[in-house]
Fold these 3 entries.
Entry 1:
Amino acid sequence: MDSPRQQVHIGPISLFTLVASLGMAVLAVLAVSTSNAMYALSNRAAEMTSELYVAEACAQRFVAELDGALDQASSTGSDVSLSLSGQLDALASAAQGEATQGASGLDVTVSAHMEGNEVTVVVTTPIGRRIDVRIEVAADGTYQITQWKTTTETDSSGAGETLWSPAG
């Protein structure tokens, strides 16, 4: 007596299941690589934003120190331009100290020079953020900020990072 054999049929349902599972695997790999790329991009954006905030704080600290120096010079009746030109280095170092006081610990550079009645301040960060400030100082000790410009210097000499690299 022959027992009836059960045969396994590989038909359209099995083929559809195979294609669907391969498609899901490809989509899973794409989702993981996209999330890694977005994580790296958001870290880079966060680093640039925090450096910009530190640079802004340094520039604002310089303006505050300049305001105090102008107030002191005008109250003593001394020549404002002469008094200010001797204090620019101290004002720049006080503003540069603003970066080390916070939790950032960035190596921010603050430089200032004076030409005539105009003070020019340049604040630069390690990744290329730069703030240029121009301040016109009047003889009576008042001042006016004529320029506050933020720029980012691009560096095209690198290896050319790609957004979709597996290392992220």
Entry 2:
Amino acid sequence: MYSADGSRPWTFYAFAAFFTLFVLFLYGPMTVIYILSFQGPQGGMTFPMNGVSLHWFDALFSQTRVGDIAGSFQRSIGLAVAVALVTVVLSVIAGLGFRRPFRGSAVAFYLAIASLIMPGLFVGLGIALTFRLLGLGTNWFTSGLGAQLTWTLPFGLLIMFAVLGRFNRSYEEAATDLGATSWQRISEVTLPMLLPGIIGVALFGFTLSYDEIARTALTAGSANTLPLEIWAMTTNVTSPALYAVGAVTTVVSFVVIIVALTSIAVVQRRRAAGARRATLTSTE
């Protein structure tokens, strides 16, 4: 960090300047949007501020609203919860299944994560065409759910593989030696120890689904999810109501992230407390 004469090298200042520009580029536009969302009733889309109020937040859900913000928000939340649950269940099952090598495991793995390198718009187009060929209508809770799982499942699998790669199987062997059945070993030993990783998979599934637009655009049918509704608003809404939508969705995202991280911290704290109690009991 310091050179021989005690001064900082030029690389430190270069990195500091780059990081400062990165933070400004990332959070500067977001901050501007949040501030402008509190424009007064006569305010516009740009500075200067014309009063301060919650008028545009109220307009999102009042009779004067533009677009179906309330309905699209409910659909996005419901879809994100469903995607998170399915992603967790399938990722945990697949992660446990891949712990033992089997014929074709490498092919199955690469097929499972192949959708990460495929353009999302083409994935959604293929799913929509398949539904139409089968005579089925596209909808946000059928074809939309399947399209979003092609995006969330690969991430869930990769997270579970990383978590299970550090999992000490001696705990399972100890449970077996104590007479635990296969189900008891999984439900009382394996899954509780994997719980922080499972919460992480759920967080990824929820946030990726909540913000997803490319795969959902052609598979959601006539009822928009929130990202699609926001995209539609950018073409016909010329008021700070658009900024208010961005502020609300960001708050929801941060609340979900905080709840997930808090849950992980609580699980780890309880685990550490249990380990300390076990240590004290064994020494007595």
Entry 3:
Amino acid sequence: MRSLLVLVALSVSAVFAGLSGLHVFWAFGGQRGRRAAIPELHGKPLFRPGVGGTLVVACLLALAGMLVLERAGIGSGLLPPTVSRWGAWGVAAALMGRAVGDFNYVGFFKRRATTGFAGMDTRLYSPLALALGLGAGIVAWGGG
């Protein structure tokens, strides 16, 4: 059982690391995939993330990966067990919430489902959020 927990934690953290790196790429001017990552209305993005905000998201994604590794007992050991336990539960809850969405532009239950972003959200982003949320939840439950 322990090896399965470690495998889940490593997998979830690797995805978080990749997503964090992608946000750093975007923050420093990278364009590939950026347009499909922002909800839109009538062909216009709903918001225009700046460098600072994009880097904050990159840091939060990296932190999420670290919390999952810590909770699985394979991190650096810098965090107290209580922090990694509640942090991993927080990561799981946030991602499950992201998968459900805002009932308008993002998530499985969005109403506006005809944009380029919406298609990617249905096929990739929301299922990924659900999978990461379940993985983080498994680690939060079984880690320690």
